[in-house]
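note to self — DONT lose this again. spent like an hour looking for the file last time. sequence + predicted structure for the chain T wanted, 469 res
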Amino acid sequence: MGYQTEINKLKATLASLEQKRDGLKKKIAQYRSLLSPIHRLLPEVLQHILHYAMPKPVNWFEPSSIPSTLSLASAIDFNKWGKQKFHALNHLVRLFFDRTGVSAFTLILDFGNKKLHNGWLPCLETLVRHSNRWRSLELRISRSVLEHSASIPIKGRLPILSHLDISGPLGESDPQFRCDLFTACPVLSSIELCPPSPFTDAACPLPWGQIRNLTLWGCSGIDGLSVLNLLQNVDSLTLQNFGASNEIYGGEHINSDVKRLVIHAECNAEVHCILTNATFPSLSSLDIRGDSRQPNDWTKWEEKPLVDFLIRSPCTITTLSLKYIPISDQQTIWLLQHLPMTLCLEEYFSTDDSSTANHIITHVFLDKLTVDHARASPSFLPKLTRIRLALHYDRLKKLALVKAVASRWITDEVYSLEIGLTSVESIDIVLIDSEDAQVQNLTEELQWMADAGLRVTIAALKLEEDKDE
């Protein structure tokens, strides 16, 4: 029996390696297809084009330059609008398009708050002629650029555009502005807007009904919530610095089938804005994260708006992620008691570089996480299968952590059904500012469960590295 078990493990390892091999073969084939247009370009033409993105001379056909040419083969980024040799650049861009065939690409145009320079018109017209190849479009432009006659031909010629990211200068307002360039985009499903974007009012229609992924950032609650009222089919909603102003939203309460909600916030108001004005009965994934670069600016967590939202929305949260927010262990426990179906718990805490205190993963929290098998039907997170925790090692209650995980590691399926507890399947632990020896020490404490099939991952994280991400 023991030999057969080892043989089965080796078979599983072999199958995994074969899957990785097949995946690498597919990636290599994709890379070759992306590189083929590059090889058709004349070296001198390619060098002139790439000069705008890489100031240092590069041998474009060196192996080390392949990643650069690969990314530039599928994306064009114009974000420097100084005094350029416009005619030469337009000629090179035309050659680039002529030699890259019909490959789809991402186009990034950053005009900032500048008006369209006449010298750029030929280049813009060349780009517009290839709008049928735009897969993703990122625009940082004023309304005057959209109104320009050079932009009009893209209307109805965006057959493969799937992602649109657009924003305009702050303070720009024109009640007479109209734009219908993006009304006919048959596969557009992802939009990112930064009000005051040109597309935040009814005068600038978008195919809102087909949008599945929406990101709103840097906007007041009134502007952002007005946009949300236009969309009823969004599955994934991401909000960043959303609704921090004291303005009161007077529109209709938002009721949508959003399944995944991500909130990037720097204060309670940015969390409360959406939770107070919306109901998401189909929500299954909730991710709330603060700013790791300024952790002390947000010092107190107010839980009532979130709990009220959960009570109002008859949803089943299966994935919860809390990162860099000033929530305490007791507040976390109170919150999780309203989420009995949580399957994945990812907790980070708000801290500065000098702090080594665990605000969430305390002895109190670990005791609550531990299942008492003398009691029938545990009520605290009975369906928890995946756990991800981040904490400081020097305050770590190792025995309490191991005990909590072990109490949820059940190999007997019959017993699992009897007590109403789903066995944990994986545990990921991130040790903040820890040494390799500390990672190894904790790994050894959990190794016996890893050998029995529990997926265990222990890693170290430097706060400075995380802040740079």
